[in-house]
Design a protein that fits this description.
It is built from 18 helices and 2 strands. It has 3 domains: about 1-55, no CATH class; about 85-280, no CATH class; about 290-420, no CATH class. Helix 7 packs across helix 14. About 65% of the residues lie in helices and about 0% in strands. It has helices at about 1-15, 15-20, 25-55, 55-115, 125-140, 140-150, 150-170, 175-195, 195-200, 205-215, 225, 235-260, 265-270, 275-285, 335, 355-360, 375-390, 410-420; strands at about 345, 350-355. The N and C termini lie far apart (about 120 Å). A hairpin with a 5-residue loop joins strand 1 (about 345) and strand 2 (about 350-355). It has a two-stranded antiparallel sheet with strand order 1-2. By secondary structure, it is mostly helical. It binds zinc ion (2 copies). One zinc ion binds near residues 294, 296 and 313.
Length: about 425
């Protein structure tokens, strides 16, 4: 094709006026054409080779290599930045997740204990009291009795806390509760990351703000801690960022699980925001009021009652009351006192007849004792620890009635099972 073009050019030039005068022969024209074409062939070959080289895909790619490499590095760096920031954000999430577990654990423990298959002793206030009083009699410590009587609420909460510690040490189920809180939270985090509104954010800042807003009930994340995660972004990086966070969640899960498993029960209870012992005291025992005379705990269920009452009152000396004349511990019992002619002193120190006690303690209803043996447990305790209590309370021992000495441990426990 190129040769024909060249021959046409030679012919055209030979026809020009200045060449016609040369009177060239056909042979000369042939020689000229052969010479021109002979020289042109080498150049045509070079041109052809250059064309083939340029259009060869391999050499083309070779030439473009630096550009492609630059594009790749660019993409990789964006991804790398995204990954780095996502990992950083997961580090911000970790303490917030642990905090969430600590905040939820107390309620989970209470639900776990109070469920149908939970320990029998927490089924009712009566059963729990029997359990504690049984244990106190077995332990046989006057100090523990004094604590139970005089600091009832604190004692009970401590007792419940110790009992829960033992329960979870034996059952080894505390980590099951923690893991179930963690799993449920991770599900919510994943939902928030896939949330349309969250993904529609135009900047990473808006994305994180929306993410924190969706999970505001579960996670407490300070704005300052999310600032370190911010980086330059475009719309596609937000989806990628969300995807990277989700990807890193499995590492985070392992870290949190390790942290959970490294703590012993005591530390777990210490970090729990809602103390299960406080909640169980409120739910199982209810009212924390004690008889103004003998400190017997109120037995009316729940919190909403106008009058507090106890079916079993105790000899007053057990709660440090001393006879003014003899300086001996007082062994009188409220349920008998209120139908006697005896007097008591209220907080101001003035004497009043027991019969009028409701004028001074209108929210307490003390019923006269109708069963002779209802306080047998406490009479037995008094007999057992009379001297120890006297020493503890810095008083003289009570002069206890003769028939109290006939009480046995069995009788005491029997009265407990009957009345408490
Ligand atoms: Zn009382
Ligand atoms: Zn009450």
């Amino acid at each position: 094709m190129y040769s024909q073009e060249l021959l046409k050019m030679i012919n055209n030039n030979l026809k020009q006026h200045k060449f016609e005068n040369l009177r060239t022969t056909k042979l000369f024209e042939l020689d000229l054409k052969l010479w021109v074409l002979g020289n042109a062939v080498v150049m045509f070959q070079r041109m052809h080779e250059e064309f083939v080289r340029r259009n060869d895909p391999q050499s083309y790619l070779e030439e473009m290599k630096p550009q492609y490499f630059y594009t790749f590095i660019n993409m990789f760096e964006t991804r790398n930045e995204c990954q780095r920031r996502a990992k950083q954000f997961c580090m911000v999430l970790t303490p917030a997740i642990l905090d969430h577990i600590n905040r939820c654990l107390g309620k989970e423990i209470v639900d776990d204990i109070l469920q149908k298959t939970g320990p029998q002793k927490f089924k009712s206030r009566k059963i729990l009291q029997q359990e504690v009083l049984n244990k106190l009699l077995i332990d046989g410590s006057s100090e523990k009795y004094a604590e139970y009587i005089n600091s009832y609420e604190d004692f009970m909460k401590r007792w419940i806390s110790q009992d829960l510690t033992e329960h979870y040490k034996c059952q080894n189920t505390i980590h099951v509760l923690q893991t179930s809180i963690l799993q449920s939270l991770l599900r919510k985090i994943k939902q928030a990351l896939q949330d349309e509104k969250t993904l529609q954010a135009k900047t990473i800042y808006d994305f994180l703000a929306e993410f924190c807003n969706v999970l505001k009930k579960e996670l407490v994340i300070s704005q300052n801690s999310t600032k370190v995660v911010l980086f330059e972004n475009n719309l596609s990086t937000i989806q990628q960022f969300a995807h990277e966070i989700e990807w890193h969640l499995s590492d985070l899960e392992k870290l949190v699980e390790q942290d959970i498993k490294s703590r012993n029960i005591e530390t777990i209870f210490l970090h729990s925001t809602l103390k299960p012992q406080d909640e169980l005291f409120r739910k199982v025992i209810g009212c924390d009021k004690q008889c103004p005379f003998c400190k017997a705990p109120c037995e009316a269920g729940g919190w909403n009652h106008k009058e507090h009452f106890a079916t079993v009152h105790r000899p007053r000396g057990l709660s440090q009351h001393v006879n003014e004349n003899t300086k001996a511990l007082d062994h009188s019992i409220c349920s008998s006192n209120i139908i006697s002619n005896k007097a008591f002193r209220n907080a101001e120190g003035k004497p009043h007849p027991y019969k009028d006690y409701q004028k001074y303690y209108p929210d307490w209803a003390i019923h006269p004792d109708t069963t002779a043996d209802s306080s047998d447990y406490w009479k037995f305790v008094f007999i057992q620890f009379n001297h120890l209590f006297a020493k503890l309370y810095n008083a003289n021992p009570a002069n206890l009635p003769e028939d109290w000495h006939k009480l046995t441990r069995e009788k005491a426990l029997k009265s407990l099972n009957k009345t408490q």
